Amino acid sequence: MDIGTYGYPTPAVKKIESYYDVPEGVDIRGRYDAEFAKILTKDALKFVADLQREFRNHIKYALECRREAKKKYNEGALPEFDPATRYIREQEWVCAPVPPAVADRKVEITGPVDRKMVINALNSGAKVFMADFEDALSPGWENLMRGQVNLKDAVAGTISLHDKARNRVYKLNDQTAKLFVRPRGWHLPEAHILIDGEPATGCLVDFGLYFYHNHSAFRRTQGAGFGPFFYLPKMEHSREAKIWNSVFEKAEDVVGIERGSIRATVLIETLPAVFQMNEILYELKEHSVGLNCGRWDYIFSYVKTFQAHPDRLLPDRVQVGMTQHFMKSYSDLLIRTCHRRGVHAMGGMAAQIPIKDDPVANEAALELVRKDKLREVKAGHDGTWAAHPGLIPACMEIFNNNMGNASNQIDTVKREDAANLTEQDLLQIPIGTRTMEGLRLNTRVGIQYLAAWLSGSGCVPLYNLMEDAATAEISRVQNWQWLKYGVELDEDGLGEKVNKDLFDRVVEEEMARIEKEVGTVKFEKGMYKAACKIFTRQCTSPTLDDFLTLDAYNYIVVHHAKEGPVKALN
Question: What is the pTM of this model?
């Protein structure tokens, strides 16, 4: 593997025999495949390229604004409600009415876009399946393009899979969940597609290819005249929502469908965004179908936002739940904001997965899920997320029992009490302890998740929880924060300070534990050592990288050249 200018590996380059038919200015460096060519048609690529050319400067400006905001927070400022947009928060206005096809979203299942997952999730009994090109997917070329093929087949209703090992055929039921698609965040490039010599914006590739091929069939078969439907991740400011709104308008105009056909739910999963919820809905007024509590990323963002604030250190990540005051305030304000504006307020993820070999532990885990979902529905949420089909009946039962025949609680639970929540409520420092076990768990989960991600899996079962990039991010930034400020541990590590020596010892011991848990053969074959190197470097870096996956992405890019020499991976 060659090392590039910045110490990252340069993409491997392999020669290919066939090539995609591309419009002017577009260069595809990903492997040629006849199935992928049905997605990467000249017209679809022109649609993506037009989006890129029209919006790339807006995107660059939005990302520059993020950097400016980070600089401000690092100099001691705190996020706050913007005085300039007070009129948006105080005026009475509502978003466009919710499309009837997605009025009922009591339980939504999420997962990556691999073929078996898509079929099982659509058949799961959930109201919605959020097909994920973002945190639950390792964004290698094969995963992304096969995902587009799978979603096209799903929208057409023709998707099937013959599992030869199990001698079982998977296909869609008559009744399926409604499909939402989550593209990547603004910050992630698509290095396999160059437009005018620079990498395409990942989310415009994800959105553009899916929308172009599926808008007509989706509106006919799933959306009852509306759609397609999307989830939008990682936003920090309403200016980013404004770009999405413009993208939607252009897409609708290009294919000739009514304004407001496309609908999107925005994940409120960054701390700055909680102060912009009204403004985000306002920018997407014609295209909004709610907000969602992306709680794991929200915790990650709290640490990242306050990376230069030693007075705001988090306790162990397992202690930062929705009963912490700053988390409860965020959820309550989201419900109040959404219902005031006439759209869904979606709850957070139940990450537990069934424990098949331990009925007692399984029932205890299910009881935790029930308690969490009961809290959500009583607070006023209109629906919730589950990571595994096995949780759907329990989640559905809680929401049905508490909502009766109603599709949602938009008109019945207004949460006017949350109007009094202040900036201090949203920023209150969480209480709890920082322990050696917390440091160890962060390290163990972070390394194992990253090893799976480098091997092509973005959604990983670890210790009876379904982990995605968000939980790995919490692990990384918390380790970084504790190391930077020499945190003194409580309980099992009483009096020990987190420093480089201690961390090196923990990494060594946790790597030995991982090898013991997964077995030496799998350990040696897997990407654990590479993952350990990246994770350790990120945790001990003098400056905190914005995203773990942005750094690690360089390790999964493989370029295929039309002609010329071949660079092979070592």
Answer: 0.94
